[in-house]
Amino acid sequence: MASSVNPTVRRRRLGQELRRLRELKGMTAEEVAEKLLVSQSKISRLENGRRSISQRDVRDLCAVYEVEDHRIVDSLMQMAKDSRQQGWWHAFGDIPYSVYIGLETEAASLRIYESLLVPGLLQTPGYAEAVIPGTVPELAPDHLEKRIQVRMRRQERVNDPERPLRLWVVLDESALRRVVGSHLIMREQLDHLVEMSQLPHVTVQVLPYHTGAHAGMSGTFSILEFDDASDSSVVYIEGVTSDLYLEKTNDVHKYTIMYEHLRAQALSAEQSREFIADAAKSHADAMG
């Protein structure tokens, strides 16, 4: 059973608070690192929430920042303790995108632009089983099964009965045409996509080929937003060996504007459903 405490989000909130305390003290990350005899990169990782934060780290940093209010220190120490708990995804072993899963689990809304494949949150088991080894060809069979299980578990967030994820997907036509696995798998996948797009909190729009050049041609990305005002929005860009998380207001704003252009260029939600249904029929016809 997943813990009610999301360690990824706890680390992120704690990091933001530690950064605020450092800036109030008027110190640079390099100056803090010198006082603690650690690397500057460690301070940066603690502040961006990409690294586990121990209670000792918090204690040492609070001492450097001369935080005298014990209630603040105790609160930060508790956050550090909570941040070291394990989320549900840790039960599946070492997942390379575990930071993203933690953010996705807590997000209130998620906007995705995808050009080549159906996003993981909307994949059928058959499609996932075909696409994962295609994108990660060296993956061992037991790791493949874990990846599929994690992907299916992530989908529970979309239809969480207490707090369903508001999901908006802009999908390039190529993701509908590329035959992943087989025409049967594609037909089932696109039928599922049509069904999911009819949910009130899920919107799917298609960018057809005839749109021509568009704002997303520089690459795919996702924008995560959160209910808690202390959690800033995050732009997530998946990479082969490492992922990129953009949290600066200006960066998020630029990608938000880009997404608005994509939405405007794409077919409407109703037109997209018809388009996807036609693509599913073309796969069915190809089956003979």
UniProtKB/TrEMBL annotation:
- Quote the Pfam families the UniProt record gives: DUF5753, HTH_31
Q: Which CDD domains match?
A: HTH_XRE
**Which residue windows are transmembrane per the record?**
none
Signal peptide start-end: none
What region holds the HTH cro/C1-type domain?
A: 18-73
**GO MF annotation list:** DNA binding
Q: State the name under which the record lists this protein.
A: XRE family transcriptional regulator
The organism's taxonomy opens as: Bacteria, Bacillati, Actinomycetota, Actinomycetes, Kitasatosporales
